[in-house]
Amino acid sequence: MLQRNALIAGGVILVALLIAIAVSQFGKSPIADGEFDKGQRFTAKPGTTRENAMLLTSADRKSTKDPEPAGPEKPIKPEHEDDVLEVKSLSGTASSARSGPANEVAQAALNNLSPESGLRQVETALALPHNQEQAALLHEARAELYTRMDPPDFEQARLAFEKALEMAKDPRLREEIQHEMVQMLMQAGRDPEALERAAAQVKSAPPTGGAGYKLQLLLGQLHERAGQSELAETNYRAVFDAMGGMPEGLSPEESIALSRLATLRLTHLYRAAKRDQDAEDVALALKKQVSRMQVASQTQP
Predict the structure, then answer these.
(1) What is the maximal distance between C-alpha atoms in the chain?
(2) What is the pLDDT of residues 83-94, one digit of tens each?
(3) CB-based contact 236:262 (threshold 8 Å)
(4) How far is CA 94 from CA 78, 204, 243, 250, in A?
(5) Which of 61, 183, 258, 287 has its CA 20 to 30 A from that of 127?
């Protein structure tokens, strides 16, 4: 009797063990409570660079490298491997002119899933009376929407940017529009025109905001792509040196980000020219500059 009871108890324990193993192997939830699925990432809707960004979930990532932007936002692959839009990812303090009902319409149009529908929204708003600054925002939105069409209409985008510049009076807003226009020309493969426009803007007045410094970085990149290494270095260095003084109108975070972008471009330039020591020197200078800027930002009232 005792032997029978022992066999029964042993059998029960064995069955329980097998059930536990099966549950551990096949009963797992794909994403445990409190864990984030690292195969997904959240991004803003393509082209949305301002305040009303919409979160979307992308497909699984097989690589740690960010994928190329999809859709018409980047329709033309640059001849060179360096990314034309790399400074576009830096968002900063926008012009104070970006307010009011026209700005709200512009943001809604830019967030529209269809560029054509967004254009209709903007055209309807432009039929109403606006002051020049508000109208400039609507024409700027029109320009960006034309670049998102399939295929992009770069000529209509250029005309819309020109109209926006004609109406915009605020210096920082003008810089932002110029920066966007140069990016558009680079996307369209019109580097000589982009270089001429960027050079004219940088020469006409010192930058007043982040867009002005980003434009100067683009100017350096255009010189670099044209084989004008010395001019490229001059523009990259100008931005790097300016950030060391933490320019008025830029947050410490913006100044640090621009310092890093300038260093990235300088390092790329130096490595291509086999100036390895110069690349190491500027990397060390960046480390010291960022440390100094971080200390200064903490002591500011």
Answers:
(1) 103
(2) 444 444 444 566
(3) yes
(4) 27, 21, 18, 10
(5) 183
Average pLDDT over the chain, rounded to an integer: 78
**pLDDT class for 60, splitting at 50, 70, 90?**
very low
Q: What angle do CA 177, 204, 244 make, to 5 degrees?
A: 85
Assigned token pair, 163? 């109209």
> Using one digit for the tens of pLDDT, what is the confidence trace for 191-219?
999 999 999 999 988 888 999 999 999 99
Spell out a b/e string for 160-187, using b for 16 or more CB atoms within 10 Å of the CB, else e.
bbebbbebbebebbbbbbbbbbbbbbbb
Residue 216 belongs to what H/E stretch? helix 210-225
| Contacts within 8 Å (CB) and 24+ apart, 142-148 | 143/180, 143/181, 143/184, 144/47, 144/110, 144/180, 145/109, 145/110, 145/115, 145/118, 145/119, 146/115, 146/119, 147/47, 147/72, 147/73, 147/184, 147/187, 148/46, 148/47, 148/71, 148/72, 148/73, 148/115
Q: Which residues contact 262 (CB under 8 A, 6 or more apart)?
A: 217, 236, 237, 239, 240, 243
User: DSSP 3-state assignment of 57?
Assistant: strand
How far is 286 from 179, CA to CA, in rounded Å? 25
